[in-house]
Specification:
Elements lengths: L5 H10 L5 E5 L6 H12 L2 E6 H6 L10 H12 L9 E6 L5 H13 L3 E6 L2 H7 L8 E5 L5 H7 L4 H12 L6 H17 L3 H10 L2 H22 L3 H19 L8 H4 L10 H9 L3 E7 L10 E10 L2 H9 L4 H4 L8 H14 L5 E5 L3 E9 L4 E7 L9 H8 L8 E5 L5 E3 L2 E5 L13
Helix pairs in contact: 1-2, 9-15, 10-11, 11-12, 12-14
């Protein structure tokens, strides 16, 4: 079974006497249901799982439920023999966004306090906005992501002791030896191919067959693209969502990597505001990661966001490498000359930073250039610039150099991530191997 970092969080919640209902939010197909089911069945004698998408497409037992007693009655028709006491009965409300009225009911179910509850959902940001009575104070939303690189290492037999030693070296700015570096880089490149979607990872572990993995990637990508039809009634908006989603790989191959709004419908003068709901769907669904432009990097970064300069990345790097390279693994494993892996490296960094809880920004200044990522540093109350390099010229970064030298920005540290093995420093800039992104967010160095 795949280890997921969110498991202890779920266990702690279910063992506590929280006055809120925990909702695990995130894209479909990332393992939300599996991990909740695994923990729930371990901790509770009576485990009841209700999938509201299946109900919506089938008997519709919960479609018109509006009271706590009606809810209990419908549950009893499915699992009445398992409805014990609060301490031994868990009711898991899976895909709760299918019935927004049940989000409102969570408050009353918790107040009744007859059983223990946990929920999962997709598109909760969109769904909550459409819900007339949001149960603020009664729910806790925790976002889940595909497997990050550390989880991928563990899934592939890399032991915790080795990861802990790598972490210690990272914080001490000590490089791995050649053999260790090559082993980690080999697995990192495989992560670029496989990504972190559980079905793809399990398939790779079982068969080591890239064709089978790519088949899973294509099925999930099609599933994501088609899923909008279930939540958006406007046909034109569905087409625009699909168009924006399909544009992501080609946008990332452009020099600026930004979304060109006029390309969505081929109309000049279009802006972010013209497609705000469509972007909100893609981001809230968890199938894309948004990186917003900052021209004046004042802490906290969110106060300086420019929505009209937006980058979108797919939520999983494996989906991107499938689109770009298909089953030709040589492009990544062999560092083939002429293949620019810039968009792939930037995608995996976005995926790691998002999974570690960072809001994603990049620096864009017409006269001073562009830096790939900016993150908030709450210790120094300043921004931390991060540049991602896929080639050998990783010390060439004029925009980052100018950024660090700007006294108005109060930069305390900056990072360049690349294929290099050795960790070195030049002034405020630290050069790191690309895989060390897995430790950002661990403690003070990030």
């Amino acid at each position: 079974m795949l280890y997921r970092k969110i498991q202890p969080y779920i266990e702690h919640y279910l063992k506590s006497d929280s006055n809120k209902v925990l909702i695990i939010d995130g894209a479909r197909q990332i393992g939300k249901t599996f991990i909740i089911r695994h923990v729930g069945q371990q901790l509770f004698e009576n485990y009841i799982e209700l999938n509201f998408i299946e109900d919506q497409n089938g008997p519709k037992l919960f479609e018109k439920v509006r009271s706590v007693n009606d809810f209990y009655f419908q549950v009893s028709t499915i699992a009445g023999e398992k409805m014990g006491a609060k301490g031994d009965t868990l009711i898991f409300l899976d895909e709760i966004q299918a019935y927004p009225h049940l989000l409102t009911m969570l408050k009353f179910l918790k107040q009744d306090d007859r059983y223990t509850y946990i929920a999962s959902g997709s598109l909760l940001g969109v769904t909550l906005k459409k819900t007339t009575s949001i149960p603020i104070g009664s729910i806790e939303v925790k976002r889940m992501f595909p497997l990050d690189f550390e989880e991928f290492l563990l899934a592939n037999g890399f032991n915790r002791f080795a990861i802990d030693m790598m972490r210690e070296k990272f914080f001490a700015c000590e490089s791995l030896d050649v053999a260790a570096h090559e082993k980690v880089m080999d697995l990192f490149k495989k992560y670029l191919l496989i990504g972190g979607l559980p079905d793809a990872v399990n398939s790779f572990i079982a068969d080591s067959n890239i064709v089978k993995v790519r088949r899973i990637h294509r099925d999930i990508r099609a599933f994501y693209a088609d899923d909008a039809a279930k939540y958006e009634s406007d046909t034109n908006k569905k087409l625009q969502i699909r168009r924006i989603y399909d544009m992501i790989p080609s946008n990332l191959e452009n020099k600026k990597k930004r979304v060109v709004f006029q390309d969505v419908e081929g109309k000049r003068g279009k802006r972010f505001s013209d497609y705000q709901n469509e972007f909100e769907y893609l981001i809230s669904a968890g199938i894309t990661l948004d990186v917003n432009a900052i021209s004046s990097p004042v802490f906290p970064l969110t106060q300086s966001v420019s929505k009209n300069l937006l980058k979108l990345y797919l939520n999983d790097v494996g989906l991107l490498t499938d689109i770009l390279y298909g089953s030709n693994i040589r492009a990544i494993l062999d560092d083939e000359t002429g293949i620019n892996l810039g968009s792939v490296y930037e995608s995996v960094v976005a995926q790691e930073l998002a999974a570690h809880g960072f809001k994603l920004f990049y620096y864009d200044n017409r006269s001073k250039g562009e830096v790939d990522y900016l993150i908030d540093d709450y210790d120094s109350l300043s921004s931390v610039p991060i540049e991602v390099k896929s080639g050998k010229d990783y010390t060439v970064h004029s925009a980052l150099s100018n950024f660090v030298k700007n006294d108005d920005y109060h930069v305390k540290k900056a990072f360049v991530l690349s294929n290099t093995r050795e960790i070195t420093r030049n002034g405020k800039i630290t050069y790191l191997p690309i895989y060390d992104i897995m430790f950002f967010g661990s403690t003070e160095n990030s």
